[in-house]
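Students often ask what a holo structure prediction actually looks like on paper. The answer is less mysterious than it sounds. You provide the chain, you provide the ligand, and the output is a string of discrete structure tokens encoding the 3D arrangement of the protein together with adenosine-5'-triphosphate.
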Amino acid sequence: MVNKSHDDTAVMLRNVSKHFGEVTALNDVSFTVNKGEIVALLGPNGAGKTTAISLMLGLRKPTYGDITLFGEDPRTPASHRYVASMLQESKVPDTLHVREVIELFKRLYMSRKTVEEALKASALESKANSRVGKLSGGERQRLYFALCVVADAALLFLDEPTVAMDVESRRLFWEQVESMSSLGKTIVLTTHYLEEADALANRVIVINHGKIIAQGTPSAIKSQVNGKFVRFHSSNLKDGVLSNLVGVHHVKSKDDLISFRTFHPEQVLQQLFAWGVDIKDLEVNSVGLEEAFVTLTSNRTEES
Ligand SMILES: Nc1ncnc2c1ncn2[C@@H]1O[C@H](COP(=O)(O)OP(=O)(O)OP(=O)(O)O)[C@@H](O)[C@H]1O
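The corresponding structure tokens follow.
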């Protein structure tokens, strides 16, 4: 039984599990997405991200648990008018022209957005009269995004939306997603580009083996493993010196370039200086989201 909600919740999953025979793709997952939020689902291959999207879209039925979109069951036609999606297996007929497909979606969603606006948002103006079958992989992805733009739906599900896009297209896509969010659209995306989640998402939900293992703002996720990367050149650092220091991890050395991770860079460097280690071109950087993600999903624990 689904409860109607009239609050700020756009998406709600409560104790959702999905089994495919012996495989547990999602295991007791609960989260909400508020109206206007951009939430990124992150996780390694097979983590359960696409399964979560397909359940939220009502394409599959959860084995256990409840899901609502704006208080409605996603499998009821009523909820479909709010939603547009870019899925990994998206397809449109190759023989249609780009402009025709966008026009078709505009009519389907009875949207007031214009075809020109969608072409511009996806930088496809010059391809408007090309057949879909002639588009490159990246242009095809941009077409699927143009369909989301023209649909003008309140809620967007984007499953690995920037796969095959070049750097410039990806930047344009980020700008467009941000501007849609500023207009109050709610966006749920999956991505393997962790810098994308860092750049775009208000909140990141990290999934591994069908379970949520962390969630929060990108900086909160990073702070869960808030060590520093230290890198420098040295001509006289002896092998094994760093590995024997307490709180120094992942020591790597190649020729005279040394790198390691630590929660206490000041103390470690002070010690090295005191020992007369020659240190040049020193860099101390915060751990990026990518590193945080790898650490979280590989279940490594490190003492400080
Ligand atoms: N239709 C299906 N039948 C059987 N098993 C499935 C099915 N769909 C997904 N799975 C399994 O469920 C698990 C989660 O898959 P899912 O596609 O949701 O992962 P993902 O996080 O989206 O991965 P990727 O990043 O590779 O797209 C995997 O073990 C997958 O093999």
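DSSP finds ten helices and 13 strands in the chain.
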